[in-house]
Amino acid sequence: MRWFLISIAITACADSTKPAASAAQNNAPSTRVVDGVAVTVLPDAPANPTCLSYCKSFGACWLNLSNTDPMLSSDTAEKRCLLEQSQCQRQTADLHCCAKLADCGEFAHCIESAHNVVSDCDRFPSEPTASGR
Predict the structure, then answer these.
(1) Most buried pick, 34, 69, 83, 95, via CB within 10 A?
(2) Of 22, 19, 38, which Cα lies nearest the Cα of 30?
(3) Percentage of the chain surpassing pLDDT 90?
(4) pTM of the predicted protein model
(5) 126, 59, 131, 60: which is closest to 97 by C-alpha?
């Protein structure tokens, strides 16, 4: 009887050391698990060029935007933009399309009216129309 109980205890302990099926899936090289949260890192993914252009315009037009801190430089504003936009590792949003506007006043108005939703910028006017003024 003792041998049977010891055998069951050893088998139970051996089974508890096996990783769960979901834990085994989280050990992929590009996935990191911290405190139960899995983060997939794609180091080779190129940055979204439309987003990069938006952040460049954001920095250049920094003082034309509403509620800005005049003590921040354009470079700092651009870096903050990149940080807020996840280093442009995201899909193009309608506010990114505002970078097509060269005038800082129009750029500021554009981002204030944007909804930050996924967009392909196809229906975005590249130049303001005379009737739009």
Answers:
(1) 95
(2) 38
(3) 53
(4) 0.62
(5) 126
